[in-house]
């Protein structure tokens, strides 16, 4: 087993839950640390879960000692309740976590963003995601991996009605979404998780952005050799 630690934020979410199961059963990591607002079940002997106050992360800096930081945090406007609260979850916390992890020695960060992320977008969601990417990229990691899936498919709770509606509309259109439109096909959450593990293991140096097609390719390459 490798002497390597991955720190995962968002382990109770759709992508994060799949990622936790995959990291916790992968011998390339000896420790899989998760931080969350509430306790979660242990995913395996290498899993180490901590309940934290995300408004006081700086007081818990010792928990950020890792090699690889994976941020799969995300919410919706309906869940957040305001633009300010949405930015807190999708931008400010990932940025603060990246700073703490980098200061503690992490050399790689993997951020689950979204297709269409653009810091200059007029669309609030896309702009916030783009600003999060830019903020994390500026922290100084040796390797920055940005995953931009399309609408996520997978078993989720019943609170994200907009995404459920989007899937209902897009799923029947998958056979005709070809060429440039192929990126609009829903991305399986477990494919994103598999890609996170493969990319983290492969650790391509520098900044890389992975769109849906690249995510699927990495997901099909569990050895991390793409």
Question: Could you characterize what this model shows?
Answer:
Helices cover 36% and strands 17% of the residues. It is of the alpha/beta class and 226 residues long. Helix 5 links the parallel strand 7 and strand 8 (187-188). It is globular and about 45 Å long. The model is unreliable at 164-170 (pLDDT under 50).
Question: Which key features would you list for this structure?
Answer:
Rossmann fold, 17% strand, 226 residues, alpha/beta
Describe the structure concisely.
This protein has a single domain (5-158, 187-219), classed as Rossmann fold. The chain has seven helices and nine strands.
CATH fold label? Rossmann fold
Which descriptor suits the 3D outline? globular
How does the helix and strand content classify structurally? alpha/beta
Distance between the termini: 22 Å
Biggest β-sheet, characterized?
A: 7 strands, parallel
Evaluate the radius of gyration: 17 Å
Secondary-structure element series: EHEEEHHEHEEHEHEH
Determine the fraction of residues in helical runs and give it as a percent range. Answer: 25-40%
Tell me the fraction of residues in β-strands, as a range: 15-25%
The CATH architecture name reads 3-Layer(aba) Sandwich
CATH class category: Alpha Beta
Question: How many domains, in number, for the residues?
Answer: 1
The overall pLDDT average reads 89
Which stretches of 5+ consecutive residues score pLDDT under 50?
Answer: 164-170
Count up the helices.
7
Q: What's the CATH superfamily, by name?
A: NAD(P)-binding Rossmann-like Domain
Side by side, the strands of the main sheet go 3-2-1-4-5-6-9
- For the secondary structure, the number of strands is 9
